[in-house]
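Input record (one chain):
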Amino acid sequence: MEAKMLGETSVHTTPPALDLERAKKWYQEKLGLTPAEENTAGIRYEAGRGTSFFGYPTPNTSRGGHTQMGFRAADLTAEMTALRGTGVAFEDYDLPGFKTVDGVAEVDGQRASFFKDSEDNILGLIESALPFLDRFRAPTCCSALDGLRTAIVSRLMIEGNRRGSDDRRPAANGALRRRAARPARRDDS
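The corresponding structure, as predicted from the sequence alone:
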């Protein structure tokens, strides 16, 4: 069998957890997600468009200080309202070139918000105001474009933190709509 280039395969993210049971409870109560699979290595969750993420236990307390996982939001305001209703607190940032207002950042025609899970992983919601981007529906955790956006925003935050501006105050609170369970996607790789 011929090997595929990585650009042709699906991807997932793996947020770490100091306390996997606490994380499982948080993802259920705050985001309305239930495990698709649990084993000794961790917990796999499924999201939209055949995407998934895998939470795993680790004694490592270090978190990257950047967005660990991004969810695409068709209506950022509605998603934030729902998440606030479950007690999610959105982060506020005031960094050079990157500022949030009521938990929302606007950069190059896109809106995004950020919040932390029970394990201090930074999660993002990304809404694009650029209609042509909706054509890209790659079955990955976040499409390649969403990943790029997240990387750019994360980079801005990291640069701001290096300059000593670390003004992160919780703004308020909020649930991703519960997604129907989907059968596991087969990858022919």
